[in-house]
Predict the 3D structure of the following.
Amino acid sequence: MPKGFSDKQRERIANSLVATGKELFSQYGLKKTSIADITKAVGISQGSFYSFYRSKEMLFYTVIKAEEEKIRERLMKEVDFTACDVKENLKELMFWTLELIEENTLIQQLFSINEMETIMENIPKEATESHMQSDKQFLSEIIAKWQKEELLINEDTEVIVGLFRALFILPFSKKSIGESNYKRTIEILVNFIAEGLIRR
């Protein structure tokens, strides 16, 4: 622990690192943001940074976890998972998430293939596995609830989660899909997925 930092100062610096990291990562991405950029904005030395995080990738990971927690809370407030029409629930969930990806530059950075590879190389394996499990569990609980109520097909929840994940990477393939056709393509896919998951 650097000398001269009180508990209150450490808390302030930790919060500032996360807030500054979010701003810079969202604007420039992980690779183009340096530790020097972060520490200069926060007002600490680069040496002090390492008493909080072992790397900028670990800070990025912390920022992403905090952001995803906010997103989950917002999702639970804005999407009515208790409604009787599960098909519409599914469509709302998918459209809501796709819209979020389009507007959230930090989430876009996370889904960037190059950025993801860099993060995975610099984050302890147990941390990434824990994060993926938490992410999967969030959707799995919703899916399992609907399956228990016999509203969804009896498919492995991990397969259904994988289906959602496959859909959610499509915003990064707009050019391949064709930008003029993208919106209508997504609408058809979302309808097909929702229709296919409903138990008859």
